[in-house]
Automatic annotation (TrEMBL):
Pfam families: Ribonuc_red_2_N (PF08471), Ribonuc_red_lgC (PF02867), TSCPD (PF12637). Catalyzes the reduction of ribonucleotides to deoxyribonucleotides. May function to provide a pool of deoxyribonucleotide precursors for DNA repair during oxygen limitation and/or for immediate growth after restoration of oxygen. The lineage of its organism: Bacteria, Bacillati, Actinomycetota, Actinomycetes, Streptosporangiales. Belongs to the ribonucleoside diphosphate reductase class-2 family. It comes from Haloactinospora alba. It catalyses: a 2'-deoxyribonucleoside 5'-diphosphate + [thioredoxin]-disulfide + H2O = a ribonucleoside 5'-diphosphate + [thioredoxin]-dithiol. GO terms for biological process: DNA biosynthetic process. This is Vitamin B12-dependent ribonucleotide reductase. GO terms for molecular function: cobalamin binding; cobalt ion binding; nucleotide binding; ribonucleoside-diphosphate reductase activity, thioredoxin disulfide as acceptor. Residues 155-690 form the Ribonucleotide reductase large subunit C-terminal domain.
Length: 947
């Protein structure tokens, strides 16, 4: 796409200069890229399906016909600038792309990047083509800010620094708040702050870094991020040899114990709940920076010294294995801390003469100097898969060159939140090119994610991307100069380039797909070393793997970052409104790659559509099941499969990888120890592990997953009914009981009638004045439930579906144990569960009495209490996807799947009988799904902390 050539006179006509000769790869001279696209007008109306409120509305927006409605909604609502309803409001994707690309082209032209005006125009057209055709995307701050009257902030990732002075600590609070206000996240290492066991110059005892974390945490929780509703994104790191390391390790696990106590007392400690604000340290990800010396001490069972921050002497020694066990135990309890492997990080550091890499951004993919930032862009890998399932290495490499050029140009015009960050970033010009859709690419080509072949493909693509990026960086250095810090770090930078190249040479190939990719990567690294030896490099860092949450939806990607597919069935928004569930398009392509005929492909796809997995799909050979393994579901990828994929790509990245390794609830502390230890042995830079259901503050849990899944599986054959169910009517005289209640000030009562031989047979719920609409609806609902109970629908099903349904009236109840209810229906079915279900069934659903919860908290057996105490109930505040999917939304059109789910995560739960740990989107109420180390909403594109 571009090459270096001698150009015409530079600005001001002084002498000759070199510039990029831009080769057109995607566009044609004389034809604007927009003219080759079919455009259409659409109406964007985004609602919260829970209450029917409209979150965003803009009608008549213009987008390419090939763009999905999901992408249209997210771009129109998040990236279009101007007040909604005003003439200044952007209404076309053309306007958005013109606004952004125009600044890049003009800045490149003004700063000597292009050999001629024709090359500048070619760059402009190629960039616009790639954006409009979803070949790649810049990170969100570019779309928010570039070309507007706002500051031209283009970076999403920031690293700060804190010294051992009160002035520096207060500056940290201020700088972090400024970054949060702008919608981005920041990380910091607090290891320079003296420990709580060391003295101040005045003679007093220091507070220690953990105490200062409280103030920063409160600030982050107050400011939020970008002035929006999602929490701030931040990372706090402490070195393993800090004397306060044990306190740091257990900081969040102790708070998790507090959350459980508050929950059992009836407080609202859901994510976003009114009482969660009393819990500390919840706005940051915590990581321990472990050294090779410490890990070797763990390996050998040796002692390890903790050193003074002021004198450098060893203050105390600890058992390395005991401390490592403590890290694993804490992470098992609450998912923090993660580990960052300092030896590997520093070994791949291109600028050690300037300073160490001490911290990372909140998602751990950006690791560089203190007080620096990084702008990101991600390539859509699936766009380069040809019809014959070969990978278009040439076009991929050319796009990489184009994107790296544009990213470097952005540093020239970018604004930064603090002057220190601006100085460091301009001096070292850190970039973060990455990709999305790796999981979809592997599946489409018949590669299992957790396989040698899948890892070889991923490693080859990553090597080609980074080698090409650094080659272009070396070419830019010959045109506009090296980064300012290159001279003092030249030897170190060259050493790291040789390490990347050597890793590429050692890459073990398995199949045919990756061979031409690896050949191209080898050539790219050879050219990179040759040109870099002559010119140096323009950028200290080039690549990383980010979460690609919102921009992944903008590009219509099936998978984000380095992640595998989340599930085999997804939800697709329709242009006319509503949504429908579709089987991922990669699946029929994968089946064709594996040699299945069209008739079998159709049958297998239909089976997946109904069941959500491939087990026992007609005609599908068991040895091919692994190709369709996903992050969640009936067949999920084992934890070490994720770790091995990270290890395969890490040697070909300047930075690190945003990814959390998810493990089942049954995982042990020993499993965490093994994963963390293997991460070090395999050469990762960072690793975080999340155990399902470990956090009470997560509004969804997977309690009873196995039993529920078995029930769902065993129920599948009964879908095709041989005999109609028989109604078992209640006798004329039957036992019943009535319970009065108030929920949020609304009064009502429940009358429950039972069969003489036990078993609930009817329920009548009264609420509101007789003759009112509400009373009529409740009467009709009562009759429907009663008839269903008599036809054999288990009460457990109703409890599972209707508890935690949220609507007004809601709030405090007069029940001694159900202190809070999300709605009247929520209260009623909790009460019925406690009165009519045995302990075993209730515990699987998370519904326990107050006495049972007290016994559980005290380490006693709640089932013994259940045999003695008549229940009053309160379940842990857990929000399940199943019941939410059944709530009728006034504005939701009846085009959802048969499960009436509202997101892919909810559909997976409905079909496969488990509940996923994931927050609900605060904007639209949809259940989010994992994206790297964050969560992203596929309904509106909101993220839980990553930009």
């Amino acid at each position: 796409m571009t090459e270096t050539t001698s150009g015409t006179a530079g600005r001001g006509g002084k002498g000759k200069r070199k510039g990029l000769k831009v080769e057109r790869v995607f566009t044609t001279p004389g034809v604007h890229p927009y003219d080759e696209v079919e455009w259409e007008r659409r109406d964007v109306v985004m609602t919260n399906w829970r209450d029917g409120s409209i979150n965003f509305e803009q009608r008549g927006v213009e987008f390419p016909a090939e763009w999905s409605m999901n992408a249209t909604q997210i771009v129109a609502s998040k990236y279009f600038r101007g007040a909604v309803g005003s003439p200044e409001r952007e209404w076309s994707l053309k306007q958005l792309v013109d606004r952004v690309a125009g600044v890049y082209t003009e800045t490149g032209r003004d700063n000597g990047y292009f050999a001629s005006e024709e090359d500048a125009e070619a760059f402009d057209h190629e960039l616009k083509y790639a954006l409009v055709h979803q070949l790649f995307s810049f990170n969100s701050p570019v779309w928010f800010n570039v070309g507007t009257t706002s500051k031209q902030q283009v970076s999403a990732c920031f690293i700060l620094s804190v010294d051992d002075t009160m002035e520096s600590i207060l500056d940290w609070y201020k700088e972090e708040g400024t970054i949060f206000k702008g919608g981005s996240g920041a990380g910091v290492n607090l290891s320079r702050i003296r420990s709580s066991s060391e003295l101040l110059s005045s003679g007093g005892t220091a507070s220690g870094p953990v105490s200062f974390m409280r103030g920063a945490d409160a600030s982050a929780g107050t400011i939020k991020s970008g002035g929006a509703t999602r929490r701030a994104a931040k990372m706090v790191v402490l070195d393993v040899d800090h004397p306060d390391i044990s306190e740091f390790v257990h900081t969040k696990s102790r708070e998790e114990h507090k959350i459980r106590a508050l929950r059992d007392a009836g407080f609202d400690v859901d994510l976003g709940g009114s009482d969660i604000v009393s819990v500390q340290y919840q706005n940051a990800n915590n990581s321990v920076r472990v050294s090779d010396a410490f890990m070797r001490a763990v390996e050998t069972g040796s002692d390890f010294g903790l050193t003074s921050r002021t004198t450098g002497e060893v203050l105390t020694t600890v058992d390395a294995r005991e401390l490592f066990r403590g890290m694993a135990q804490a992470a098992w309890e609450c998912a923090d801390p993660g580990l960052q492997y300092d030896g590997t990080i520093q070994d791949w550091h291109t600028n050690p003469e300037t300073g160490r890499i001490s911290a990372s951004n909140p998602c751990s993919e950006y690791m560089s100097l203190d007080d620096s930032s990084c702008n990101l862009a991600s390539l859509n890998l699936l766009k380069f898969l040809r019809d014959d399932n070969s990978f278009d290495t040439e076009r991929f490499a050319k796009l990489t060159e184009l994107v790296i050029t544009a990213m470097d140009i952005s540093i020239t015009f970018a604004d930064f939140p603090t002057e220190k960050i601006g100085e460091t970033t301009r001096a070292y010009r850190q970039l973060g090119i990455g990709y999305a859709n790796l999981g979809a690419l592997l599946m489409a080509t018949g590669h299992a994610y957790d396989s040698d072949g899948g890892r070889a493909v991923a490693a080859s693509i990553t090597s080609l991307m980074t080698g090409t990026a650094y080659k272009r960086s070396a070419e830019l250095a010959g045109i506009v100069g090296t980064y300012e810090g290159y001279a003092r770090n030249a030897e170190s930078h060259k050493r790291v380039m040789r390490k990347h190249s050597a890793a590429n040479d050692d890459l073990r190939l398995v199949g045919d797909l990756e061979k031409p990719i690896h050949t191209a990567a080898t050539k790219a690294w050879q050219d990179c070393l040759k040109i870099g030896e002559k010119n140096g490099w323009r950028n200290a860092q080039a690549s990383l793997l980010a979460p690609t949450g919102t921009i992944g939806f903008m590009m219509d990607c099936d998978t984000t970052g380095v992640e595998p597919d989340f599930s085999l069935v997804k939800f697709k928004k329709l242009v006319g409104g509503g949504s429908m569930q579709i089987v991922n398009q990669a699946i029929p392509r994968a089946l064709a790659s594996l040699g299945y005929p069209q008739e079998q492909i159709e049958a297998i796809v239909e089976y997946i559509s109904q069941h959500g997995h491939v087990v026992d799909a007609p005609g599908l050979r068991p040895e091919h099941y692994e190709v369709f393994d996903c992050a969640m579901g009936r067949r999920y990828i084992e934890p070490m499969g994720h770790v091995r994929m990270m290890a395969a790509t890490q040697p070909f990245l300047s930075g690190s990888i945003s990814k959390t390794v998810n493990v089942p609830e049954s995982a042990t502390v020993e499993d965490f120890e093994q994963i963390y230890f293997e991460g070090w042995k395999l050469g990762l830079k960072a690793l975080a592990v999340y155990r399902d259901n470990c956090k009470v503050g997560q509004p969804l849990s997977s309690g009873g997953t196995q039993d529920t899944e078995k029930t769902a599986e065993s129920a599948e054959p009964e879908v095709v009914e041989v005999n109609r169910p028989v109604r078992r009517r209640l006798p004329k005289k039957r036992p019943s009981e009535t319970v009065s209640f108030t929920v949020g000030g609304a009064e009502g009562y429940i009358t429950a009638g039972s069969y003489p031989d036990d078993g609930l047979g009817e329920v009548f719920m009264k609420l509101g004045k007789q003759g009112s609409t509400l009373a009529g609806v409740m009467d009709a609902f009562s009759i429907a439930v009663s008839i269903a109970l008599q036809y054999g629908v288990p009460l457990e099903t109703y409890v599972e579906k209707f508890t935690n349904m949220r609507f007004d009236p809601a709030g405090v109840t007069d029940d001694p144990d159900i202190r809070m209810a999300q709605s009247v229906v929520d209260y009623i079915f909790r009460r019925l569960a406690l009165d009519h279900l045995p302990y075993e069934d209730r515990s699987a659903l998370g519904v326990l009495s107050a006495e049972e919860r007290r016994a559980q908290a005290a380490g006693e057996d709640p089932s013994q209490v259940a045999a003695q105490v008549e229940s009053y109930a309160q379940s842990a505040p857990v929000t399940t996807g199943e019941e939410e999917t059944e709530k009728p939304a006034p504005v939701q059109q009846k085009q959802d799947g048969p499960s009436e789910a509202h997101s892919t995560a909810e559909f997976v739960e409905r079909q496969q009988g488990f509940v996923a740990d994931a927050p609900l989107c605060v904007t639209c109420g949809t259940k989010m799904r994992p994206s790297g180390s964050c969560y992203v909403c596929e309904g509106c594109g909101s993220t839980s902390g990553c930009s």
